[in-house]
């Protein structure tokens, strides 16, 4: 509050009105004919201005004290100078509406009402036959005005809180979207680029021994590169639907390129999955298979796919070296996040007989329908 004369947020709408009101009040008080001496008038105006300044900056009990003091000065001036000064009660009625406490507003309104009752009583005038009849609706307006200002300020505050909440939500959405895109790029392109790497290494070995096969592998690399470009475009626009059936085909191709065999078994009657559920499972399967190719040094990969009355599960097992690191990398974390988004789970652990087992589970929807095992 140091080095400040007037609240910055009120300069645009209230500064001119307050300045004009204070000048007119000062003129009326100082130019009127009354028994009040010039020193007493200046002291009254000084107390009024101090009360106004305090009410201008505070919203707690100090605002109520300043309003009551200011209203008391206006009451005194109304009796001595004339009832026309009661018009300036709007200054405090406006500031009173900005109080944080409803009790303070209520007490301030009572003070305003008493001011309009005491002035005609002390002046020995009938309330409805005041010198200025317009003061009756002015009194009503000054009593109602703090309530209107309070509602307006409350609405402004709620709108500010809503805007802040919307900005925070937007920030979270943007952050989640960035994480989703990063996750999808890692899962999808990681799978495709791993295939390109494996085929490139194979081509390098075949280029002298079997040029015809090397040429075929180079064509596959070109086709896979086009697929990678298409995947980038799709991921930038939105996450596409990926079926588990198509993912098993991609996985088989990748594992065969790495010299591994894939065996898939189905247990029970599979349930129909939503597009989001199937896509999330397919991307998690892609990540699991990519990790097997990169790290497992396995010869075989076995998949068990099934469902019971409660969960739909996919279990991916290999006969490789098992988990080298206990902490999960980006791929494992992305699988867990995807399953958690579906209220499911993803676990990665070493198998007792060697290798790794990845188990993906999602809860069965109440309206889930069965489909024949294939």
UniProtKB/TrEMBL annotation:
Its EC number is 2.7.13.3. Pfam families: HATPase_c, HisKA_3. The keyword tRNA processing does not apply. The chain crosses the membrane at residues 12-30, 42-58, 64-91, 103-121, 133-151. Keywords: Kinase, Membrane, Transferase, Transmembrane, Transmembrane helix, Two-component regulatory system. Residues 280-365 form the Histidine kinase/HSP90-like ATPase domain. Residues 177-240 form the Signal transduction histidine kinase subgroup 3 dimerisation and phosphoacceptor domain. It catalyses: ATP + protein L-histidine = ADP + protein N-phospho-L-histidine. SUPFAM superfamilies: ATPase domain of HSP90 chaperone/DNA topoisomerase II/histidine kinase. It is an enzyme of class 2 (transferase). The keyword ATP-binding does not apply. GO terms for molecular function: protein histidine kinase activity. PANTHER family: NITRATE/NITRITE SENSOR PROTEIN NARX-RELATED, SENSOR HISTIDINE KINASE DESK. This is histidine kinase. The lineage of its organism: Bacteria, Bacillati, Bacillota, Bacilli, Bacillales.
């Amino acid at each position: 509050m140091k080095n400040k004369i007037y609240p910055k947020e009120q300069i645009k709408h209230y500064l001119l009105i307050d300045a004009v009101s204070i000048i007119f009040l000062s003129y009326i008080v100082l130019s009127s004919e009354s028994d009040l001496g010039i020193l007493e008038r200046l002291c009254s105006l000084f107390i009024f201005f101090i009360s106004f300044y305090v009410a201008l900056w505070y919203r707690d009990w100090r605002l109520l004290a300043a309003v009551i003091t200011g209203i008391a000065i206006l009451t005194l001036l109304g009796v001595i100078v004339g009832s026309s000064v009661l018009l300036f009660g709007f200054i405090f009625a406006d500031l009173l509406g900005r109080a944080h406490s409803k009790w303070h507003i209520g007490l301030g309104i009572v003070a305003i009402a008493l001011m309009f009752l005491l002035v005609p009583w002390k002046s020995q005038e009938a309330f409805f036959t005041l010198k200025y009849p317009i003061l009756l609706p002015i009194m009503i307006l000054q009593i109602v005005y703090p309530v209107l200002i309070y509602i307006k300020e409350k609405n402004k505050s709620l709108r500010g809180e809503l805007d802040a909440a919307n900005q925070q939500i937007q920030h979270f959405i943007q952050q989640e979207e960035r994480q989703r895109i990063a996750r999808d790029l890692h899962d999808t392109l990681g799978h495709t680029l791993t295939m390109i790497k494996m085929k490139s290494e194979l081509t390098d070995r075949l280029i002298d021994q079997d040029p015809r096969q090397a040429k075929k592998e180079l064509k596959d690399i070109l086709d896979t590169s086009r697929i990678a470009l298409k995947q980038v475009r799709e991921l930038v626009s939105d996450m596409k639907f990926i079926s588990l059936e198509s993912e098993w085909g991609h996985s088989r191709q990748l594992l065969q390129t790495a010299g591994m065999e894939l065996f898939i078994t189905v247990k029970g009657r599979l349930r129909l999955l939503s597009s989001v559920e199937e896509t999330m499972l397919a991307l998690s399967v892609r990540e699991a298979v990519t990790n097997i190719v990169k790290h497992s040094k396995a010869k075989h990969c076995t998949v068990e796919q099934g469902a019971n009355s409660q969960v739909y599960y996919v279990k991916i097992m290999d006969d490789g070296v098992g988990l080298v690191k206990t902490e999960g990398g980006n791929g494992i974390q992305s699988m867990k996040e995807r399953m958690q988004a579906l209220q499911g789970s993803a676990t990665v652990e070493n198998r007792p007989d060697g290798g790794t087992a990845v188990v993906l589970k999602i809860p069965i929807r109440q309206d889930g329908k069965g489909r024949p095992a294939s």
